[in-house]
Amino acid sequence: MPSDTYRHKGMRKRLVDGIAKKGIKDKAVLEAIMRVPRHFFMELAFQDWAYVDKPFPIGEEQTISQPFTVAYQSAALEIKPREHVLEIGTGSGYQAAILAEMGARVFTVERQEALYLKASKLLEEMGYTNIRTFWRDGWKGLPEYAPFDKIIVTAGAAELPKQLLEQLKVGGIMIIPIGIENQKMHRILKVSESKYKDELLDDFRFVPMLKGRNPKS
Ligand code: SAH
Q1: Burial of 189 (0-12, 13-18, 19+ CB in 10 A)
Q2: Which of 13, 116, 173, 183 qualifies as a cystine partner to 156, CB 3.0-4.6 A?
Q3: For ligand 1, is residue 155 a contact (CB within 6 Å)?
Q4: Which pLDDT score is estimated for 47?
Q5: pLDDT of 47-78, one tens digit each?
Q6: Distance CA 176, CA 161 (A)
Q7: CB 24 within 8 A of CB 71
Q8: Residue of the CA atom closest to atom 4 of ligand 1
Q9: pTM exceeds 0.90, yes or no
Q10: 6-204 adopts what CATH topology?
């Protein structure tokens, strides 16, 4: 693991201030971003840019989300300590670490085996005992651990994944970007076993949510 220096902490403080200026006021979210060294989750070549508010490549044609987007989705979930949160799209593991810092029990699913292995190793080394990682197809969720208090999808979904809705608790919240090229963020409240309230939020750009695992097995 790289080291987390005062220089990194200083840059992180400026990043957090910038995110707060862009409209994220949730203290628990801002404190979590302040605590997690984002440069641990990035390739050596990009580590100098870890505290710039932008997405960066993490291999396998995927990206670590922009910190503002991570903050936006985390705030929308209204996480309470010990809630069970399902994340689709582990990627680097950064978003999972933010949710864990907010007190959630995180179940995170990744379809790319190489990313799953890398993120699992890093999160374990960092001591996150409240994060469990899975190499699966996120369209199917994790039925054996359902229902979840909250669900977060960090890849652009062409449509609303029905199986994920079924794995959400009544009273739970799902935050998901839906669309092909660009995505509209949807915040879905499960009102009863059969009723949902779908709130449309801002526009974002995510890598696509694909079907099946890679490599196939
Ligand atoms: N949350 C990540 C960013 C993820 S980028 C982070 O903090 O770094 C989106 C990720 O979703 C990619 O790693 C991609 O491989 C993964 N993904 C895409 N479709 C998926 C699916 N059906 N199931 C699980 N993961 C998926």
Answers
A1: middle
A2: 183
A3: yes
A4: 87
A5: 889 999 999 999 999 999 999 999 999 999 99
A6: 10
A7: yes
A8: 91
A9: yes
A10: Rossmann fold (3.40.50)
Q: Which of helix, strand or coil describes residue 36?
A: coil
CA torsion 22→63→52→29, rounded to 10°?
A: 50
What is the number of the ligand 1 atom nearest to the C-alpha of 94? Answer: 7
Could you confirm whether 74 is annotated as catalytic? no
Task: Say if strands 183-190 and 196-204 run parallel, antiparallel, or are unpaired.
Answer: antiparallel
Edge-to-edge order in the sheet of strand 105-110: 131-135, 105-110, 84-88, 148-153, 168-178, 183-190, 196-204
pLDDT per residue as tens digits for the range 148-157: 999 999 999 9
Residue 23, pLDDT score: 97
Residue type, 21: K
Gap from CA of 56 to ligand 1 centroid (Å): 13
User: For the chain, which residues make up each domain, given as ranges?
Assistant: 6-204
